[in-house]
Amino acid sequence: MTMTTRKLVAVSAGLSVPSSTRLLADRLTEAVRGSLGESLSGTGSGAGTGAPAGNGSGAPAGDGVEVRVVELRELAVPIANHLVTGFPSPDLEEAIDAVTEADGLIAVTPVFTASYSGLFKSFFDLIEPEALSGKPVLIGATGGTARHSLVLEHALRPLFAYLRALVVPTAVYAASEDWGGSGDPLTDTLPVRISRAGEQLARLMTGTRGAGDTAGAGAAGFGAGDFGALDFRAAGFGTAGSGSEAGAGAGAGAEAGSRAGAGTGAGGDGGRAKAPVAAPQLS
Protein backbone atom coordinates (compact mmCIF):
# COMPACT_ATOMS: atom_id res chain seq x y z
CA MET A 1 0.00 0.00 0.00
CA THR A 2 1.35 3.42 -0.95
CA MET A 3 1.83 5.78 1.95
CA THR A 4 0.95 9.42 1.32
CA THR A 5 3.52 11.73 2.89
CA ARG A 6 2.16 14.97 4.33
CA LYS A 7 4.49 17.97 4.57
CA LEU A 8 4.21 19.87 7.84
CA VAL A 9 6.11 23.16 8.22
CA ALA A 10 6.46 25.18 11.43
CA VAL A 11 7.55 28.83 11.31
CA SER A 12 9.05 30.16 14.55
CA ALA A 13 9.79 33.87 14.99
CA GLY A 14 11.53 33.52 18.36
CA LEU A 15 14.67 35.59 18.80
CA SER A 16 16.38 34.13 21.86
CA VAL A 17 18.15 30.82 22.40
CA PRO A 18 16.49 28.92 23.96
CA SER A 19 13.16 30.37 22.86
CA SER A 20 9.71 29.79 24.33
CA THR A 21 8.32 30.54 20.86
CA ARG A 22 10.38 27.71 19.36
CA LEU A 23 9.36 25.47 22.26
CA LEU A 24 5.67 26.12 21.55
CA ALA A 25 6.24 25.50 17.84
CA ASP A 26 7.88 22.16 18.66
CA ARG A 27 5.05 21.14 21.01
CA LEU A 28 2.44 21.99 18.38
CA THR A 29 4.42 20.11 15.75
CA GLU A 30 4.54 17.01 17.93
CA ALA A 31 0.78 17.21 18.52
CA VAL A 32 0.02 17.49 14.81
CA ARG A 33 2.48 14.74 13.93
CA GLY A 34 0.93 12.45 16.51
CA SER A 35 -2.59 13.03 15.19
CA LEU A 36 -1.39 12.59 11.60
CA GLY A 37 0.34 9.34 12.51
CA GLU A 38 -2.88 7.97 13.96
CA SER A 39 -4.90 9.12 10.97
CA LEU A 40 -2.51 7.90 8.27
CA SER A 41 -1.53 4.58 9.86
CA GLY A 42 -4.91 3.77 11.44
CA THR A 43 -3.11 2.19 14.39
CA GLY A 44 -3.60 4.91 16.98
CA SER A 45 0.09 4.71 17.77
CA GLY A 46 0.52 8.47 18.18
CA ALA A 47 3.65 10.33 17.21
CA GLY A 48 5.61 7.16 16.47
CA THR A 49 9.32 7.14 15.84
CA GLY A 50 11.59 9.16 13.63
CA ALA A 51 13.63 12.32 13.81
CA PRO A 52 12.64 14.94 16.39
CA ALA A 53 10.21 17.58 15.13
CA GLY A 54 12.68 20.34 15.81
CA ASN A 55 15.52 19.01 13.65
CA GLY A 56 14.72 21.44 10.83
CA SER A 57 16.16 18.96 8.31
CA GLY A 58 13.02 18.05 6.44
CA ALA A 59 13.62 14.37 7.20
CA PRO A 60 10.63 12.06 7.56
CA ALA A 61 9.26 12.15 11.11
CA GLY A 62 6.65 9.59 12.02
CA ASP A 63 4.25 7.70 9.73
CA GLY A 64 3.95 9.54 6.43
CA VAL A 65 4.82 12.95 7.91
CA GLU A 66 7.70 15.14 6.77
CA VAL A 67 8.53 17.93 9.21
CA ARG A 68 10.44 21.14 8.56
CA VAL A 69 11.02 23.96 11.06
CA VAL A 70 11.83 27.44 9.72
CA GLU A 71 13.70 29.61 12.23
CA LEU A 72 13.17 33.21 11.17
CA ARG A 73 15.93 34.38 13.52
CA GLU A 74 18.46 32.74 11.20
CA LEU A 75 16.91 34.48 8.17
CA ALA A 76 16.59 38.00 9.61
CA VAL A 77 19.29 39.57 7.41
CA PRO A 78 18.18 37.81 4.17
CA ILE A 79 14.59 38.90 4.89
CA ALA A 80 15.67 42.54 5.28
CA ASN A 81 17.77 42.36 2.11
CA HIS A 82 14.91 40.85 0.16
CA LEU A 83 12.58 43.64 1.26
CA VAL A 84 14.89 46.33 -0.17
CA THR A 85 16.35 44.50 -3.18
CA GLY A 86 13.54 42.19 -4.23
CA PHE A 87 15.89 39.21 -4.49
CA PRO A 88 15.85 36.37 -1.92
CA SER A 89 18.95 34.52 -0.81
CA PRO A 90 19.02 30.76 -1.55
CA ASP A 91 18.24 29.93 2.10
CA LEU A 92 15.32 32.35 2.23
CA GLU A 93 13.96 31.14 -1.10
CA GLU A 94 14.11 27.56 0.17
CA ALA A 95 12.22 28.54 3.33
CA ILE A 96 9.52 30.37 1.35
CA ASP A 97 9.15 27.37 -0.96
CA ALA A 98 8.82 25.04 2.04
CA VAL A 99 6.01 27.17 3.48
CA THR A 100 4.09 27.53 0.23
CA GLU A 101 4.40 23.83 -0.66
CA ALA A 102 3.43 22.51 2.77
CA ASP A 103 0.24 20.54 3.35
CA GLY A 104 -0.10 22.19 6.76
CA LEU A 105 1.51 25.21 8.40
CA ILE A 106 2.18 26.12 12.04
CA ALA A 107 3.01 29.80 12.60
CA VAL A 108 4.19 30.99 16.02
CA THR A 109 5.36 34.46 17.02
CA PRO A 110 6.34 36.25 20.21
CA VAL A 111 4.17 39.22 21.15
CA PHE A 112 5.87 42.56 20.55
CA THR A 113 3.94 45.77 21.37
CA ALA A 114 0.61 43.94 21.52
CA SER A 115 1.02 42.33 18.08
CA TYR A 116 3.13 39.87 16.10
CA SER A 117 6.83 40.62 15.75
CA GLY A 118 8.16 42.68 12.86
CA LEU A 119 10.31 39.75 11.74
CA PHE A 120 7.24 37.50 11.59
CA LYS A 121 5.27 40.03 9.53
CA SER A 122 8.23 40.77 7.24
CA PHE A 123 8.58 37.10 6.34
CA PHE A 124 4.92 36.68 5.43
CA ASP A 125 5.05 39.96 3.50
CA LEU A 126 7.46 38.19 1.13
CA ILE A 127 5.00 35.40 0.32
CA GLU A 128 2.78 35.87 -2.72
CA PRO A 129 -0.80 36.75 -1.69
CA GLU A 130 -2.30 33.66 -3.35
CA ALA A 131 0.39 31.21 -2.21
CA LEU A 132 -1.36 30.27 1.05
CA SER A 133 -4.88 30.19 -0.36
CA GLY A 134 -6.73 27.19 1.08
CA LYS A 135 -3.75 26.04 3.17
CA PRO A 136 -4.53 24.74 6.69
CA VAL A 137 -2.79 26.90 9.29
CA LEU A 138 -2.43 26.65 13.08
CA ILE A 139 -1.50 29.93 14.77
CA GLY A 140 0.25 30.38 18.09
CA ALA A 141 1.92 33.10 20.15
CA THR A 142 3.97 33.51 23.32
CA GLY A 143 4.20 36.37 25.79
CA GLY A 144 5.03 37.28 29.34
CA THR A 145 1.43 37.75 30.43
CA ALA A 146 -1.95 36.25 29.54
CA ARG A 147 -3.26 39.76 28.87
CA HIS A 148 -1.74 39.58 25.38
CA SER A 149 -3.63 36.45 24.38
CA LEU A 150 -6.08 38.34 22.17
CA VAL A 151 -3.20 38.99 19.75
CA LEU A 152 -4.23 35.69 18.19
CA GLU A 153 -7.66 37.03 17.27
CA HIS A 154 -7.00 40.70 16.49
CA ALA A 155 -3.67 40.26 14.66
CA LEU A 156 -2.72 36.74 13.57
CA ARG A 157 -6.11 35.39 12.50
CA PRO A 158 -6.92 38.46 10.33
CA LEU A 159 -3.45 38.23 8.73
CA PHE A 160 -3.98 34.66 7.56
CA ALA A 161 -7.61 35.34 6.68
CA TYR A 162 -6.31 38.04 4.31
CA LEU A 163 -3.94 35.45 2.82
CA ARG A 164 -7.01 33.17 2.38
CA ALA A 165 -5.57 30.41 4.52
CA LEU A 166 -7.79 28.04 6.53
CA VAL A 167 -7.03 28.82 10.17
CA VAL A 168 -8.10 26.13 12.65
CA PRO A 169 -10.57 27.21 15.36
CA THR A 170 -8.19 26.62 18.28
CA ALA A 171 -5.32 29.09 18.45
CA VAL A 172 -2.71 28.55 21.18
CA TYR A 173 -1.25 31.29 23.36
CA ALA A 174 1.37 30.46 25.97
CA ALA A 175 2.08 32.95 28.76
CA SER A 176 4.97 32.55 31.19
CA GLU A 177 2.74 30.94 33.82
CA ASP A 178 1.52 28.30 31.34
CA TRP A 179 4.87 26.54 31.17
CA GLY A 180 5.11 23.84 33.81
CA GLY A 181 1.98 25.00 35.62
CA SER A 182 -1.78 24.90 35.46
CA GLY A 183 -2.13 28.36 33.93
CA ASP A 184 -5.42 30.22 34.12
CA PRO A 185 -7.88 28.10 36.17
CA LEU A 186 -10.77 29.33 34.01
CA THR A 187 -9.26 27.96 30.79
CA ASP A 188 -7.88 24.64 29.60
CA THR A 189 -4.26 23.90 30.40
CA LEU A 190 -1.61 24.46 27.75
CA PRO A 191 -1.18 20.73 26.94
CA VAL A 192 -4.93 20.36 26.41
CA ARG A 193 -5.05 23.34 24.05
CA ILE A 194 -1.99 22.12 22.15
CA SER A 195 -3.50 18.66 21.72
CA ARG A 196 -6.85 20.02 20.52
CA ALA A 197 -5.24 22.43 18.05
CA GLY A 198 -2.93 19.72 16.72
CA GLU A 199 -5.84 17.38 16.13
CA GLN A 200 -7.79 20.06 14.27
CA LEU A 201 -4.88 20.84 11.93
CA ALA A 202 -4.33 17.14 11.29
CA ARG A 203 -8.00 16.75 10.35
CA LEU A 204 -7.75 19.49 7.76
CA MET A 205 -4.50 18.09 6.37
CA THR A 206 -6.02 14.65 5.88
CA GLY A 207 -9.52 15.78 4.93
CA THR A 208 -11.17 13.96 7.83
CA ARG A 209 -13.93 15.16 10.16
CA GLY A 210 -14.82 14.83 13.77
CA ALA A 211 -18.27 14.31 15.26
CA GLY A 212 -21.16 15.23 13.00
CA ASP A 213 -22.05 14.47 9.41
CA THR A 214 -22.08 17.68 7.43
CA ALA A 215 -19.97 20.76 7.75
CA GLY A 216 -21.51 24.16 8.25
CA ALA A 217 -20.98 27.03 5.88
CA GLY A 218 -17.71 28.91 5.82
CA ALA A 219 -14.66 29.58 3.74
CA ALA A 220 -12.91 26.57 5.24
CA GLY A 221 -15.79 24.21 4.53
CA PHE A 222 -15.98 23.10 8.14
CA GLY A 223 -18.16 24.04 11.06
CA ALA A 224 -19.91 22.35 13.96
CA GLY A 225 -19.87 19.06 12.14
CA ASP A 226 -16.09 18.99 12.18
CA PHE A 227 -15.30 20.43 15.56
CA GLY A 228 -17.69 19.35 18.30
CA ALA A 229 -16.75 22.31 20.48
CA LEU A 230 -18.84 24.57 18.26
CA ASP A 231 -22.62 24.42 18.20
CA PHE A 232 -24.29 26.56 15.58
CA ARG A 233 -27.90 25.37 15.65
CA ALA A 234 -29.14 28.71 14.37
CA ALA A 235 -27.46 30.93 11.85
CA GLY A 236 -27.30 34.56 10.92
CA PHE A 237 -29.89 36.76 12.58
CA GLY A 238 -32.61 34.14 12.75
CA THR A 239 -33.63 31.67 15.44
CA ALA A 240 -34.12 27.94 15.20
CA GLY A 241 -37.65 26.55 15.36
CA SER A 242 -38.51 23.59 17.52
CA GLY A 243 -39.00 21.30 14.53
CA SER A 244 -36.42 19.73 12.23
CA GLU A 245 -35.87 22.57 9.80
CA ALA A 246 -33.24 25.27 10.13
CA GLY A 247 -34.22 28.58 11.69
CA ALA A 248 -34.55 31.68 9.60
CA GLY A 249 -31.32 33.57 9.16
CA ALA A 250 -29.11 35.43 6.78
CA GLY A 251 -26.13 33.07 7.15
CA ALA A 252 -25.65 29.33 7.40
CA GLY A 253 -24.57 26.92 10.11
CA ALA A 254 -24.70 23.28 11.08
CA GLU A 255 -28.02 22.04 12.44
CA ALA A 256 -27.50 19.42 15.15
CA GLY A 257 -24.22 18.44 13.46
CA SER A 258 -26.00 16.65 10.61
CA ARG A 259 -27.34 19.09 8.04
CA ALA A 260 -26.41 22.61 7.02
CA GLY A 261 -29.10 25.17 7.64
CA ALA A 262 -28.99 28.06 5.22
CA GLY A 263 -30.91 30.91 3.66
CA THR A 264 -33.82 32.90 4.93
CA GLY A 265 -36.56 30.27 5.09
CA ALA A 266 -39.00 29.93 7.96
CA GLY A 267 -38.10 27.85 11.01
CA GLY A 268 -40.05 24.70 11.77
CA ASP A 269 -42.46 24.62 14.69
CA GLY A 270 -43.20 20.91 14.60
CA GLY A 271 -46.22 21.60 12.41
CA ARG A 272 -46.65 25.32 11.78
CA ALA A 273 -44.21 27.45 9.83
CA LYS A 274 -43.07 30.78 11.14
CA ALA A 275 -42.51 33.85 9.02
CA PRO A 276 -38.94 34.63 8.02
CA VAL A 277 -37.03 36.96 10.31
CA ALA A 278 -35.77 40.03 8.51
CA ALA A 279 -32.12 40.89 8.99
CA PRO A 280 -31.51 44.22 10.75
CA GLN A 281 -30.42 47.14 8.64
CA LEU A 282 -26.74 47.95 9.08
CA SER A 283 -25.80 51.61 8.90
Quick recap:
The protein is of the alpha/beta class and 283 residues long. The protein is built from 6 helices and 9 strands.
**What is the total tally of β strands?**
9
Q: What is the terminal-to-terminal distance?
A: 58 Å
Give the helix level as a range of percent: 25-40%
Overall residue-averaged pLDDT value: 73
Instruction: Please report which band the strand proportion falls in: under 5%, 5-15%, 15-25%, 25-35%, 35-45% or over 45%.
Output: 15-25%
- Global morphology: globular
Element pattern in H and E = EHEHHEEHEHEEHEE
What are the low-pLDDT stretches, counting only 5+ consecutive residues below 50? 43-62, 211-283
Biggest sheet record? 7 strands, mixed
Cα-atom Rg, whole angstroms? 21 Å
The number of helices is: 6
Structural class: alpha/beta
Describe this structure in words.
- The protein has 283 residues and is of the alpha/beta class.
- The chain is globular, with a radius of gyration of 21 Å.
- 29% of the residues lie in helices and 17% in strands.
- Mean pLDDT is 73; it is low at 43-62 and 211-283.
- The termini are far apart.
- It has helices at residues 20-41, 76-85, 90-101, 118-125, 151-162, 190-206; strands at residues 6-12, 65-71, 104-112, 115-116, 136-143, 166-167, 172-175, 252-255, 259-262.
